[in-house]
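Ticket #4471: structure export looks truncated?
Reporter: QA, pipeline team
Priority: medium

Steps to reproduce: submit the single chain below to the structure queue and open the exported record.
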Amino acid sequence: MKSNKFRDLSAADLSAKIAELKSELFNLRFQNATNQLENPMRIAQVRKDIARAKTVLREIEQAGKQA
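Actual output as written to the record:
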Protein backbone atom coordinates (compact mmCIF):
# COMPACT_ATOMS: atom_id res chain seq x y z
CA MET A 1 0.00 0.00 0.00
CA LYS A 2 1.31 3.43 -0.89
CA SER A 3 1.83 6.05 1.78
CA ASN A 4 -0.74 8.30 0.05
CA LYS A 5 -3.46 5.82 0.95
CA PHE A 6 -2.25 5.80 4.56
CA ARG A 7 -2.42 9.61 4.62
CA ASP A 8 -6.14 9.43 3.77
CA LEU A 9 -6.84 7.47 6.96
CA SER A 10 -7.44 8.94 10.41
CA ALA A 11 -5.13 8.25 13.35
CA ALA A 12 -7.53 5.66 14.79
CA ASP A 13 -7.82 3.91 11.42
CA LEU A 14 -4.04 3.91 11.08
CA SER A 15 -3.65 2.29 14.49
CA ALA A 16 -6.16 -0.38 13.51
CA LYS A 17 -4.38 -0.94 10.19
CA ILE A 18 -1.02 -1.30 11.97
CA ALA A 19 -2.52 -3.91 14.30
CA GLU A 20 -3.97 -5.75 11.30
CA LEU A 21 -0.62 -5.70 9.48
CA LYS A 22 1.22 -6.94 12.57
CA SER A 23 -1.23 -9.82 12.83
CA GLU A 24 -0.68 -10.64 9.16
CA LEU A 25 3.09 -10.50 9.67
CA PHE A 26 2.82 -12.93 12.58
CA ASN A 27 0.81 -15.34 10.43
CA LEU A 28 3.27 -15.05 7.56
CA ARG A 29 6.20 -15.78 9.85
CA PHE A 30 4.35 -18.78 11.24
CA GLN A 31 3.68 -20.06 7.72
CA ASN A 32 7.33 -19.50 6.83
CA ALA A 33 8.49 -21.50 9.83
CA THR A 34 6.26 -24.42 8.84
CA ASN A 35 7.27 -24.21 5.15
CA GLN A 36 3.73 -23.33 4.02
CA LEU A 37 4.48 -19.81 2.77
CA GLU A 38 3.91 -19.42 -0.98
CA ASN A 39 5.34 -15.92 -1.43
CA PRO A 40 8.28 -15.13 0.91
CA MET A 41 8.51 -11.57 -0.44
CA ARG A 42 5.15 -10.84 1.18
CA ILE A 43 6.92 -10.68 4.56
CA ALA A 44 9.09 -7.79 3.34
CA GLN A 45 6.08 -6.03 1.83
CA VAL A 46 4.12 -6.22 5.08
CA ARG A 47 7.10 -4.99 7.10
CA LYS A 48 7.45 -1.98 4.79
CA ASP A 49 3.71 -1.28 5.01
CA ILE A 50 3.95 -1.29 8.81
CA ALA A 51 6.84 1.17 8.65
CA ARG A 52 4.94 3.42 6.23
CA ALA A 53 1.85 3.41 8.44
CA LYS A 54 3.88 4.18 11.56
CA THR A 55 5.64 7.03 9.76
CA VAL A 56 2.35 8.60 8.69
CA LEU A 57 0.92 8.13 12.19
CA ARG A 58 3.95 9.88 13.65
CA GLU A 59 3.55 12.75 11.17
CA ILE A 60 -0.07 13.16 12.26
CA GLU A 61 0.98 13.20 15.92
CA GLN A 62 3.65 15.81 15.21
CA ALA A 63 1.20 17.99 13.27
CA GLY A 64 -1.19 17.83 16.22
CA LYS A 65 1.47 19.00 18.68
CA GLN A 66 2.60 21.89 16.48
CA ALA A 67 -0.91 23.21 15.82
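Status: closed, not a bug. The export was complete when the record was re-opened. Leaving a note from the reviewer for reference: The chain has one domain: 3-66.
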